[in-house]
Structure formats: C-alpha cells, structure tokens
Design goal:
By secondary structure, the chain is mainly alpha-helical. It has a single domain, classed as MetI-like (MetI-like fold). Helix content is 79%, strand content 0%. Helix 3 packs across helix 10, helix 6 crosses helix 8 and helix 8 runs antiparallel to helix 11. The radius of gyration is 23 Å and the shape is globular. 27% of the residues are buried. GO terms for molecular function: transferase activity. This is Ornithine carbamoyltransferase. Keywords: Cell membrane, Membrane, Transferase, Transmembrane, Transmembrane helix, Transport.
Length: 270
C-alpha cells in the first residue's frame, strides 16, 4: 500500500512539474530553431538572438523595462522595509489598522482595479503618463510584497541584540544600520528581487499607466503576439527566463551564505 501511494505521489509530482515547466522548456528550445515557423523544428541556430539585438523596438522596450524594474524595486524596498518596521515595532498607534490595510491592499486588489485607479489619479492631477507614472505604479503594487517578506523576518528578530547596542552607546539609527539591517538583509534582498521580478512581469498595470516612449517589454511582446508568435519573441522570453533564474539562484546562495555565517557566529558566542 505504501509503495502504491509512493508511486502515485511521484506520478503526481512529475505531472505537476511537467504542466508547469514543459511549456517554458519548449519555448527555450524553439528559440534556437532554425526555422521561422515556431512549431516546426528545422535545426539548431542562434540567428534569432542576433536579429533580436537588431530589433530596435524590442531593445528600447527592454531598456525601459529594466530601468523601471530597477528603480521601482529599489524605492519599493526602502518604503516596504519602513512599513514593515512600523507595523512590527509600533503595534499600537492611531490609524494602525488603516495603515496596515493601505499597505497590504494591493496584495488582494485586482490588477485591473489598481491600474484603473492610478490612471484616474494621474488624469485628475494632470500628470503626463510616461516613464515616471509606470515607475510610481510599480512602486505602489510591489511595496506591499516587500513589506510582507521583511515583516516576517522582523517578527522573529531578537530585539535583545538591538537593545545591547543601545546600552553600549549606539544611537537608534546606528543600531539599526549596524545590527538590525545586517540580520534582516537576506529578507530585504529577497524583497527587492521579488519586486524586481514583479515589475519585469507586469503587463496590466503598465498598460493603464504608460504613455509615449514608455512601452515596457511585456506590452511590446503582447502587442506582437496578437499578430503571431515570432522566433524573436521566443528569444527575448528565454533571456527573461534566464535573468529570473540567475536572480533566484543568486538570492538562494546569498541567503545560504548568510545563514552559515550566522550559525558560525552563534557557535562562536556560545
């Protein structure tokens, strides 16, 4: 009976991973296809990657996306960390429930509603849509994800380390930057990478808030896919998959290294 359940679990696991990752694997494989027909294999070739870098429209959209993702992720990380600190350290203040709801609302808010709300805001204040509006929109919805990640780490943070630094004469600011921040840095880095990935992937909110000269890569890909999938689309998607994969592996290695250092320091002090 145990063996039967074991085989069933293995089969379910294989089917689940195949359902999730087989389409991605096929996309990567056909990005190296010699033929322009994306469903007919005609031999290995990298010519579509060469043509991709000659496609000025896709390159401009990729550059816009990279700038928006880096800037919005960096600002969202700072704001999300500050929000997490406020919610963790100050459990009682007037308006805390409202503040918490405003921070975490984008987690459950449909992207269409968020995009439309921001569009109406920019129109109401007569703010021209473009690079700045897309960046602000991405900060708005990615900040809450950073706050969740950092708050989960702060909940388990040992406050006695910070109190010891204060007893030794450190200011609250110095204690935070030299004691608290290094400990929660893996969570901060994870939050930044999550915000960066969400910004790279966003289509709906960017469609509402973008303007002339601020077409992101997902918007460009979507507009071209409606006319038919081309090998260049497979190539650019493969590059995006590679960037995200490298980022996830790098974050995992950083977290693992910091965990090893933390355990070594704890053993040294024990």
């Amino acid at each position: 009976m145990a063996g039967t359940w074991g085989r069933f679990n293995i089969a379910a696991l294989v089917l689940g991973f195949a359902f999730l990752y087989l389409p991605i694997l096929l996309l990567v494989i056909f990005s190296f296809n010699e033929s322009r027909l994306v469903t007919v294999w005609a031999g290995f070739s990298t010519k579509w990657y060469v043509q991709l870098f000659s496609n000025q429209g896709l390159m401009d959209a990729a550059w816009v996306t990279a700038r928006v993702a880096f800037l919005s992720a960096s600002i969202a990380t700072v704001l999300g960390t500050m929000a997490a600190l406020a919610l963790t350290r100050y459990t009682r203040f007037r308006g805390r429930l409202l503040f918490s709801g405003m921070v975490f609302a984008p987690l459950v808010m449909p992207e269409v509603i968020t995009g439309l709300s921001l569009l109406l805001l920019f129109v109401a204040i007569n703010f021209d849509r473009g690079f700045a509006t897309v960046t602000i929109a991405h900060i708005t919805f990615s900040m809450c994800f950073v706050a969740v990640v950092v708050q989960s780490r702060l909940i388990s943070f040992d406050r006695s380390l910070e109190e010891a630094a204060l007893d030794l004469g450190a200011t609250p600011t110095r204690a935070f930057f030299q004691v608290t921040l290094p400990v929660i840095m893996p969570a901060v880095i994870s939050g930044w990478m999550l915000a960066f990935t969400l910004s790279l992937d966003d289509l709906v909110i960017a469609s509402f808030t973008s303007g002339p000269g601020a077409t992101t890569l997902p918007m460009k890909i979507y507009s071209q896919v409606r006319l038919g999938v081309t090998p260049e689309i497979n190539a650019i998607c493969t590059i995006l998959i590679g960037i995200v994969t490298v980022g996830v592996i790098a974050a995992s290695l950083v977290n693992k290294r910091r965990e090893v250092i933390r355990r070594r320091d704890e053993a040294a002090y024990a």
